Amino acid sequence: EPTIIYSCGSAVVMQNVEDPHKQEFFRAHDSDITALALSQDGKTLLSGQAASPRRKDGPSEVIAWDLQTRKGIGQFAEMRGGIIAADMSADGRFAAASSEERQLFVWDVQTGEVVVNKRSEQLCSTVKFSSVERAKASRYPEYMLVTTLENQVVITRLTFDLAAMNYRGDSQRAQLPSSGLQRRFLCALTSPPFFLAGTTAGDLLIFNMDTSVFRAAIPVTANGVQAMCGQDGRVVLGGGDGSVKICEGRDAQWEEVKAMGVSGCVSGLALSPDGQEVVCGTTNGRLFRVMLSDMTATVLGHSHCAALTSLVFGTTQQIFASTSRSGEAHVWDLSDYRAVVQTQHPAKKAALAVCLAFDDTELLVGYEDGAIRGYFIEPCLPKQQPEDKNGSLDTPTDTTSSSPSPSWEIPTSHRGAVTALTAAQGQGGKGTMLVSGGEDGYVRVWHPRTREMVGNYSVAKRAVTGLKVDHNKPHVVHACSADKLLVSLDLQKDKKVCQHAVVDGVFTGLAQRKDHEYELITSGVDGRLLFWDEDEADPVAILTPMPDPVKFPNIAGAPTCLSGITSAPKLLCVSVSPSGRYVACGAHDNLLYIYDLQGRELMYTGFGHTGRVVAVAWSPDEKQILTAAEDCSVAVWNCFE
Question: CA–CA separation, 191 vs 488, rounded Å?
Fold first, then answer.
């Protein structure tokens, strides 16, 4: 089955191309993965991460994985600063990586020994092994590693030293034109005996590795050659202008034979083992599958391009919506993880709040510039999506609708950002009203069709951080704020009916039980879940989620460096399950906590993000939980009783 491997935060994801639900996760990193490399035999994977935010010395681990056993077979922590580039030898014997501290390391994966340890004056931007060569006078194979610095190409030969009984590296610089060639390298590829490198100038540089001589510079694309892959005299290039081009040739003679374009700047390319297709990633969060025979393309996946801010389910478990700080709002089909609707703020102002209203036919988004925009999303229904997955020659087939323009807009709904959105029953019990909370501390009610303001309530001096329509009284809306207030508003009586306050902590989220007198639950930066009864001034119950310092290393995928936590994390969001039995909350420590409300017992602690978990939502059938985090990802958690 065709499989792709990519990084998502601190996890390596192995996914079936035909079925996105078939995913496997490799977890051992504690920071975002910045480099991936696969051995030519497909048996070993190498992953490198950004500098660890949880360790004082900030090591950047490089991990080798056995793809047959799905286990790590080597963990190298000698490097400092984030990993820039990494590669593996064709047989998986050696691993190499460069870091932001201008280090270059080569390890023997079998023994864990360091073979090369160098520090240069410049950053090493690319690291590439060539094919394995059999030495004539030795039974030990020889390896060639090519690295690029600024205006330099360095060729390192790894040979076995019989006297020392280990491998050692000898390096030399490739010769450049005497007139000088000022280039900054972005990507590279070895095609023995040649080394090909893409530059910021948009040209392809050719070097002969055997003679260490520069051969040619060929202009190929605009805005830099950002990625490349290839084999057997054919190379696929990805440009900063969104172009994907096939060039064929040898030595100094190369020509373009095919080309197409994708939306966004190409950020990565990976060639399939049979050489018939490539996977293309772009800076606008899309992953394309490109067939090289006719340059047709289909969209494999989508992602947000900035930290997520909010998410919400629709009336069914099939669709949900999410927003990010880059102004994006996506509507997703959970059956195949497609973004069926994508919107973007024209000035890329952060989208901070989202709501699906009117039986999921309308997407409402609140932005940091104070605007609320509505989008009709009928095209997002799965039954209306085209069944044909084949693309055209020049334009890749995208299974999303085109980014729609707002159907309506309230340009200045609040002074400052719109921080919360929901829908509630209006005055007199007639119709569904739109309710917004703002950075200005006001809760405002809007007519759903005319968009006129029909209610205005000052509930706080700081931002409203959560809105919740009462389960028992749909005309009552509860609001919590950053200045430690919890307020209940009766929209029929047009007045404030209840208020609670705390001395310490800031409320960050709001939910409500469906039993036990419909108690409200707030999450706070003091690490507590507070339970509120409208007839009591003080909380009637308190829960303090905190990972067990003994059990924590056993949490699926949690790095061992996270063990020994003794203080309660800041809680950033909370959600009660549809049945009312469970409560889930996301925290500043990147974890998901789930409690059983019947016994008030911590049931589960989940590690799936490398950024703060800012939003959590239960599916209507209670079988899944979604979490959104500042690592730009949405995690789907399966729930089984």
Answer: 68
Quick one: pLDDT at residue 424? Answer: 81
Instruction: Find, among 606, 612, 605, 609, the residue nearest to 634 by Cα.
Output: 609
Secondary structure of 154-223 in the HEC alphabet?
EEEEEEEECCCCEEEEEEEECECCCCCCCCCEEEEEEECCEEEEEECCCEEEEEECCCCEEEEEEECCCC
Are 597 and 582 in contact by the 8 Å Cβ rule? The answer is: yes
Please report, in angstroms and rounded to a whole number, the separation of the first and last CA atoms in the chain: 32
Q: What is the pTM of this model?
A: 0.87
Contacts of 96 (CB under 8 A, 6+ apart): 86, 87, 88, 104, 105, 106, 107, 116, 127, 129, 145, 147
Strands 601-607 and 166-173, by their bridges, are unpaired
The residue to which tokens 């070993």 are assigned: 44
- The 8-class DSSP code of residue 350 comes to P
Number of C-beta neighbours around residue 76 at 10 A: 20
- Within 192-318, strands assigned E span 194-199, 203-208, 213-219, 225-231, 234-239, 243-250, 253-261, 266-271, 277-282, 286-291, 296-302, 308-313
d(CA 470, CA 468): 6
Q: How far is CA 407 from the centre of its chain?
A: 29
Residue holding tokens 């990147």? 590
Q: For the sheet containing 613-618, what is the strand order?
A: 613-618, 624-629, 634-638
Q: Kindly report, residue by residue over 530-566, the tens digit of the pLDDT.
A: 999 998 999 999 999 987 655 444 454 555 545 545 5
Q: Which helix (H) or strand (E) holds 37?
A: strand 33-38
What the block records as the tokens of 327 is: 């102004």
Q: Residue 371 corresponds to which tokens in the numbers above?
A: 């605007």
